[in-house]
Specification:
The protein has 251 residues and is of the alpha/beta class. Helices cover 36% and strands 28% of the residues. The protein has one domain: Alpha-Beta Barrel (TIM Barrel), CATH 3.20.20.
């Protein structure tokens, strides 16, 4: 049986790690390179870096940060934010990223998923989907959750898989930062519909929430930020508890 993965997420703004609630009210959470090092040493399976204020001019800044992080850790990490071309991906992979995450650019230009997958391999391509439950329908949002689209979460996830994505990172905007648990009903439906791994994001507050998303949500991996950044949950303790509950994890 494949082990379930625990993935800390570092939201990067102006070179610092930040964290908010429902995508707003950001506060500083520390130096990304130092945090990455700590997570790598404490049993994280992977890391995700999202440059939440990325613009074209800052691509070089992010590449330098990726290089610094790659030198400090020994686990895979995914970089996202402002990626819209094959060249962007090339730069980040050359600087030490293992995977890239695309979101708004994939919705605006779905062919990008095909292009990246064929050039770099689907194992490198994560499509992040931010969605909000509006009157019973999960609506995909762009630009850090600010812009609603006409896309439905489940239809888009199916298309993304067909176009060559290797993994989906689904963030429930309703759950993000609330610490009330993951959107397990939507996650379970997602994992039934597609055959690529699904990373649960948004809502982690307790160890039980991780257990629930692996058992009820059928998630392949769980991503969290503030509970790790502010030491509310230690990854090593989380993994021991998951193991006790019969969930396969890498210790």
């Amino acid at each position: 049986m494949l082990t379930k993965r625990i993935i800390p997420c570092l939201d990067i703004k102006n070179g610092r790690t930040v964290k908010g609630v429902n995508f707003i009210n950001l506060r500083d959470a520390g130096d990304p390179v130092e945090l990455a090092k700590i997570y790598s040493q404490n049993g994280a399976d992977e890391l995700v870096f999202l440059d939440i204020s990325a613009t074209e001019e800052r691509r070089k800044t992010l590449a330098k940060l990726v290089l610094d992080v790659a030198a400090a850790i020994n686990i895979p990490f995914t970089v996202g934010g402002g990626i819209s071309t094959v060249e962007d991906v090339d730069v980040l992979l050359q600087n030490g990223a293992d995977k890239v995450s695309i979101n708004s650019s994939a919705v605006k230009n779905p062919q990008l998923i095909n292009d990246l997958s064929s050039k770099f391999g689907s194992q490198c391509i994560v499509v992040a989907i931010d969605a909000k439950n509006i009157e019973g329908e999960w609506v995909v949002h762009l630009v850090g959750g600010k812009v609603p689209t006409a896309l439905n979460l489940f239809d888009w996830a199916v298309e993304v898989e067909k176009r060559g994505a290797g993994e989906i990172l689904f963030t429930s905007m309703d759950n993000d930062g609330t610490k009330d648990g993951f959107a397990n009903e939507a996650l379970a439906k997602l994992t039934e519909l597609i055959n690529i791994p699904v990373i649960a994001s948004g809502g982690a507050g307790t160890i039980q929430h991780f257990t629930d998303t692996f058992i009820t949500g059928k998630s392949d991996a769980a991503l969290a930020a503030s509970v790790f950044h502010f030491k509310e949950i230690e990854i090593s303790e989380l993994k021991k508890e998951l193991q006790k509950q019969g969930i396969p994890v890498r210790i």
